[in-house]
Specification:
Number of domains: 1
Largest sheet: 2 strands, antiparallel
Helix content: 55-70%
Radius of gyration: 18 Å
Structural class: mainly alpha
Number of helices: 6
Shape: globular
Order of helices and strands: HHHHHEEH
Amino acid sequence: MSLLRRWDELGWPMALARLLLGGWFVRLGLLKVADPVQFLKLLRQYDVVSDASPLLLTTLAALLPWLEIWCGLLLVLGVWVRGVALTMLVMLTTFTLLVAHHGAELAQQRGVPFCGVSFDCGCGTGEVNVCGKVLENSVLWLLALAALLSRSRSWCLARPAVTASR
C-alpha cells in the first residue's frame, strides 16, 4: 500500500499537511500585505514583467498576496482542496524557478557558489539562503502534490457529494 493511500485512510496526516501548507501560505501572504510597497520593489528584481508595464506589475503585487491568503484559508478549511492544491503547485513551481534563476544570476555576478547566495526573495521573511528557500519550496510543493492527489476529505468543511448507487 502506498504512503498516500495509508495517509488517506488515517485521515489526520492529510489534514495536518493541509493545515501546514495552508497556514504557511496565509502567513506569507499576510507578511506581504503588511508592506505592499516593499513587496512591489522585490517583485521588480525578477524582471518577469517589464518596466514598460507598471500597471501589470502593480496589479500582480497587489493581488498575489491576497491569492496566497485565500488559497491558504480554503486549504485549511478543506474547501475545493484539489483546485486550491493545483493553484498552489503552479505558484510554488513558478516561485521556485524564479528564486533559483535569480540566485544563479547573483551567484555568477558575485562569484560565489549557488548555495552561498542570500537575498530577499520577496517571500515576506526577509533575506534567505537560496538553497534553503528552494528546499523549503520543494517541501511545500510535495505537500501541495499530496493534497492534489489525496482522496481524503477528513476534517474538510466541504466534502464531495456522494452519488447514490443503483
